[in-house]
Specification:
Layout lengths: L1 H6 L2 H32 L5 H4 L4 E4 L5 E5 L6 E2 L4 H4 L2 H11 L11 H14 L9 H9 L7 H17 L2 H11 L6 E2 L1 H9 L8 H9 L13 H17 L5 H8 L15 H10 L5 E3 L4 H18 L4 E8 L5 E5 L27 H11 L7 E4 L18 E4 H6 L3 H11 L1 H10 L25 H12 L3 E2 L15 E2 L3 H11 L14 E6 L5 E7 L3 E8 L11 H15 L45 E4 L5 E2 L2 E2 L2 E4 L2 E6 L6 E4 L2 E5 L5 E4 L5 E8 L5 E8 L1
Helix pairs in contact: 5-11, 7-8, 7-9, 11-12, 12-13, 15-22, 16-18, 16-21
Length: 703
């Protein structure tokens, strides 16, 4: 009985224990459910908002040209920790903030335990227990309160972040969001704003300062509290010495470095290009341009220096283009973007202005292409009248009979207008438009002879594109400044290869500005009517550069002449590229290189249309066969070569010269005909010129 009495009380105790366990289990389930419901109530991670950055415009090598602040005024620049940040800074950051960043899952229990123990034993916070991921969670959802609930929220969010992003993505996002005082967010904005450089190479002092600032960015702002910032930097260095990350000697040297006290301005290279890019490319965090930041910087400095010397109202535009690709390497729209008196925000490379004499090379090019004149032909520079129009030279004098080469090099007006009269103003206009230039004629006017001396409007960009076509031996390319995916730009025809080479060969012999080297750059200058615009455009074998100088409002500037104002800037621009001028291309096959005495008789001297005298009853020269615009089937079955093509002529005065695509191939025989070998499939231009200089041309298609 005594045994049974001792056993009986155990049953009530087991019941009570089971009941308590059940209550605890229910409570745990309720808590777990509440915790789960709380987690669900947090909603999805605000990743999209956190990944918003300032729009950045970069050059062809990824260097920052200009950044635009976010809508709320913050500077937050995208960053790639693997390529854009000094490895020494990353080593210091992780050693100081999160040693086990690569191994934990968002929360580091060891760091939390260490922080709690230090708080208990020392009475103040020595090191935080937050990981980089937890700090990122706080930055993504900023809250002022510092409580257990807030810390718990960070831990939950950190685990979510680790599940959705890789470690590199987490680090990149943290480096873009970390606060550094004022409106600077992210290590890249801070490095540029405080040190004036990208964070790719940082000194130890700079690394430690950037580690210290995000812990209390507003109380350590360099522009307000430099002493507090220095003290925080030194504490970082001391702790890194304690942990063996930094040597004592290096820390001493780093502490001796003063901290910056002023913010540096954000880069603003190529502002006109950047503005245009942002207007054309919507919602892109990074916009890549074809510009070269190094060349852009030196040419902006050149424009600024020359504008200061020329006067407070003068503006300058400079455009540099790569010959092979048509990519714009430098784009200077004005000397100073923020100078209101110079209308600095007006991009003068896009302004329509009178080109002066800069279109003359294209007149000569078409004349060479048509085969009625050669660089060594003689041409008269004398008073002449075209109806009511009587062109005069810039110096009001005449040179008499000169070689065509010299007429272009000296920019004589009368020979250019005589050649344009023969080429045809409408044909010149259509050819330039075909090559991509937008010519602006006065209202209700059609192309006329005056366009050869500047009686038409054009932009510096279009003019440079035309000269690019000469540098590329006859085929120009649309200029490209914004890097687009799958960007295909077909070459556009300007003139024949031989004609383009002849133009370049003439222009490279143009007398250069004072103290400049001869025969290095093929260039042409121009001065518009009333001294409103001064131009100079030139090229070597690598690059084409155009310069415009004038007042943005179009007012006259006495003494503003292309040769003395714009040409020196052009040659200085080539010199500042840091490369010696590249040689021009060699003469294409079939180019006629000869002195005047060895030219075919009709090419020895140019005769204007009005001087083409015919003997009594002589008919005008005309190609009877083939007809203009016809298609000729000249293919031989089973043979890659084409059959000889007969050319028959009526009228004209013997001897007559036959030209194929501007290249002389021999004389027409006494029966006024000749067999020629087609150069290949496609369009072929056939020209016959007689002893008086008269010519006829047809274009046929060989197939």
């Amino acid at each position: 009985m005594s045994a049974s009495a001792s056993i009986a009380p155990a049953k009530p105790r087991r019941r009570r224990f089971g009941k308590a366990a059940a209550i605890c289990a229910v409570a745990a389930l309720i808590l777990a459910g509440a915790f789960a419901a709380w987690i669900v109530s947090l909603g999805p991670l605000p990743l999209a908002q956190a990944q918003q950055v300032s729009t950045s415009v970069v050059d062809r090598n990824g260097k920052l040209l200009r950044a635009y602040a976010m809508a709320d005024g913050r500077w937050r620049l995208p960053i790639d920790a693997r390529t854009g940040v000094d490895p020494g800074y990353l080593k210091l950051l992780l050693a100081y903030e999160d040693r086990r960043f690569r191994s934990h899952s968002g929360v580091d229990p060891l760091a939390l335990g260490r922080a709690a123990l230090q708080l208990v034993t020392r009475g103040h916070i020595v090191s935080g227990g937050s990981t980089i991921t937890m700090q990122l969670a706080r930055l993504m959802e900023p809250r002022r309160e510092r409580s257990v609930a807030a810390k718990l929220r960070q831990m939950v969010r950190a685990i979510e972040i680790e599940r959705q992003l890789s470690k590199d993505q987490i680090l990149d996002l943290y480096l873009a969001l970390a606060p550094f005082g004022g409106n600077l967010e992210g290590v890249r904005a801070a490095s540029i704003g405080y040190f004036g450089k990208e964070p790719k190479r940082l000194s130890l002092a700079e690394q430690a300062l950037l580690v210290a600032l995000p812990q209390s960015p507003e109380t350590r702002r360099l522009d307000r509290y430099p002493a507090a910032a220095m003290a925080a930097r030194n504490r970082v260095l001391d702790r890194m010495v304690e942990e063996g990350v930094v040597s004592p000697d290096d820390a001493v040297q780093a502490k001796a470095v003063a901290v910056p006290r002023l913010r540096k301005p954000m880069p603003i290279l190529a502002p006109h290009s950047a503005d245009q890019a942002v207007a054309n490319v919507k919602d892109a965090p990074v916009i890549a341009l074809t510009l070269d930041s190094s060349l852009q910087k030196v040419l902006e400095a050149l424009a600024r220096d020359r504008a200061l010397a020329l006067g407070p109202d003068i503006s300058i535009g400079i455009l540099a283009v790569d010959n092979e690709s048509g990519d714009v390497l430098a784009h200077v729209g004005s000397p100073d973007y923020f100078d209101e008196r110079r209308a600095g925000q007006v991009d003068m490379t896009r302004a329509v202005r009178s080109p002066g004499s800069t279109l003359k090379p294209f007149i000569y090019g078409l004349a060479f292409e048509d085969g009625f004149v050669h660089p060594e032909s003689l041409i008269d520079d004398r008073p002449i009248r075209f109806g009511s129009y009587a062109p005069e030279n810039f110096d009001m004098t005449f040179q008499g009979t000169v070689p065509v080469r010299k007429a272009l090099q000296l920019s004589l007006n009368v020979p250019a207008i005589e050649l344009l009269d023969r080429v045809g103003a409408s044909r010149l206009s259509s050819r330039l438009k075909q090559a991509g230039a937008n010519l602006v004629l006065p209202k209700d006017e059609v192309p006329g002879l005056a366009m050869g001396l500047g009686g038409v409007g054009i932009t510096l960009q279009d003019l440079v594109q035309l000269y690019l076509g000469v540098a590329r031996l006859g085929s120009t390319k649309p200029l490209r400044e914004i890097v687009w995916k799958d960007d295909v730009r077909e070459p556009q025809r300007l003139m024949d290869q031989v004609a383009a080479w002849q133009v370049g060969n003439v222009l490279i012999g143009t007398p250069p500005p004072e103290n400049a080297a001869h025969n290095r750059i093929a260039f042409k200058t121009g001065t518009s009517y009333g001294y409103r615009d001064a131009w100079s455009v030139g090229f070597d074998g690598r690059m084409t550069i155009g310069v415009w100088v004038g007042r943005p409002d179009g007012a006259p500037v006495p003494g503003l002449v292309g040769r003395t104002t714009a040409a020196p800037i052009l040659f200085d621009a080539f010199a500042r590229t840091g490369k010696l001028p590249a040689p021009l291309p060699k003469a294409p096959k079939g180019t006629l290189v000869a002195s005047n005495a060895k030219l075919p008789l009709p090419l020895r001297r140019f005769r204007p249309l009005g001087e083409l005298v015919r003997s009594g009853g002589e008919q005008a020269l005309r190609i009877q066969f083939p007809l203009n615009g016809s298609r000729i089937d000249a293919a031989n079955p089973g043979d890659a070569r084409f059959s000889a093509l007969p050319v028959k002529v009526a009228g004209g005065v013997l001897p007559m010269t036959m030209l194929v695509n501007g290249v002389a191939v021999g004389e027409i025989d006494g029966r006024r005909q000749r067999l020629i070998d087609p150069p290949g499939a496609g369009f072929v231009r056939l020209t016959v010129q007689d002893a008086t200089g008269a010519a006829d041309t047809v274009v046929v298609r060989i197939q």
